[in-house]
UniProtKB/TrEMBL annotation:
Domain ANTAR: 162-223
Source organism: Streptomyces enissocaesilis
Keyword Plastid: no
Xref: InterPro entries: ANTAR, CheY-like_superfamily, GAF, GAF-like_dom_sf, GAF_ANTAR, WH-like_DNA-bd_sf
Any one Pfam family match given in the protein's UniProt record, by short name: GAF_2
Name the record gives this protein: GAF and ANTAR domain-containing protein
Amino acid sequence: MDWQAFAQQMASLARDLLAQESVDATLRRITNGAVELVEGCEAAGILLVHGDRVQSLAPTEQLVIDSDQLQERLRQGPCFDVARRAGHERVMRVHDFTQQADRWPDYVPRARGLGLGSMMGFLLYTDEEELGALDLYSRKPGAFTEAGEAAGWLLASHAAVAFSSARAEAQMREALTTRHLIGEAMGILMGRHGLEEEQAFDVLRKYSQETNIKLREVARQVCETGRLAD
């Protein structure tokens, strides 16, 4: 592997990741970057585990979704384990699916049926949070070498920082939008009903609680219609 060329490509990708305009765009750039930069990688995706549910993000092809859904259904698999830290591993490499049935006896033979030959999973994490797993797939057994694992790990490290940063920025934008909506809705209620600021907020909050509608959506309703639904 030409590590000098890889370093240059990785530096370019790292800058590109931070320039993306949304979380989805950042994730798509991560998985496409994995296919471009990691030797042997034919498909990639990001897997999140929410309790009993698995979420596939930015898959580069249907094979990734099929594997994720299979792991969700069976409650086992290398990427499933990495994402939920079942074995406390941060990296998982399955060299050859024809020889790896002991650890995941239900998943491996079915994965072979999907056409998988080998795969790698990397925990996406920062010092503050764990974000899921970056999963790399090949239809060929033995496609991923130690050099490929090192390259994948470097990519995952940059990806985790970019993912965390993009998500934090999106949450901040959402919080600012919510704050603006609530302020506008309070102003409408204050003007129409002669309420004080605290009273207007209490109206929104109580309506949200009684209808089980998020406060942001209640405020949006007031902004769009000028009133709360009966």
